[in-house]
Amino acid sequence: MTMHVRPSFVLHALLAAALAGACASSAADGIERARQRGKLVAGIHYVVPEYKAGAKFRTPEAIDTALLEDAAKRLQLPLATVRAPSAKADFTLAALADNAAPRGDTVAIPTGYAAGPMAIMRTDTSIKAWEQLKGRKVCVSAGGRYVGMTEAKYGAIELVYQAPADALIALRTGLCDAAVHDNTMLEELIKLPEWKKFSARLPTGPRAMLAFVVPAADKKTSAFLTQVANEWKTGGYPDQLMKKAVRNIAFEVYLDQDVPDCH
To answer: What pTM, to 2 d.p., does this model score?
Structure first.
């Protein structure tokens, strides 16, 4: 289990960063560039580390990579992800706050998936408000959008783990007072019987919509991604991905928790 204390900073996927990545690669349309290259390169909030043989498999915090893999599959191209903003990206996938309107030289294409920060704790916790996290240990995972948030905003002591399963094991074994992740993930997780003891929660913070950010001039890429996003929304694909991820994360916690729940 890999863990480190991270200094205070905010890693929300902000519109400005997404715009910078989208506009930097606007010289040619993204799909044409990807086909010439033989690979789709997408900007993303967090690049999931490559799996190494023999290591424990860990389900990532976000479904961003899985969504992009589906988009690349539709183009019959392999996928590479880069940390946004990046001039190498053909387009960017970013979480945009409700009040973050795109600039005139870009378009944002919602995927239908939105989430906000949520905290879960033991049901007997004394923490009833976000402000009460001050000085308390909060578990987050490296791929999460809220790394640095509780430290900067509420004075919490954040412990950053490699993956959500590791952060949640730390919560269950008493190393942390709370765990903060996407509300979509945690709401699904605490439905499971084995999480009843850890189903206390704080109100969900401001939600952000996961969206493609594309230069406005790139009509071909925008049309393709709009069609993809519409099909995802119609079929509920993002929700399906999240529910599958939660089942996997819960199973990883079950397999690897080698000490009892704290009492």
So the answer is: 0.85
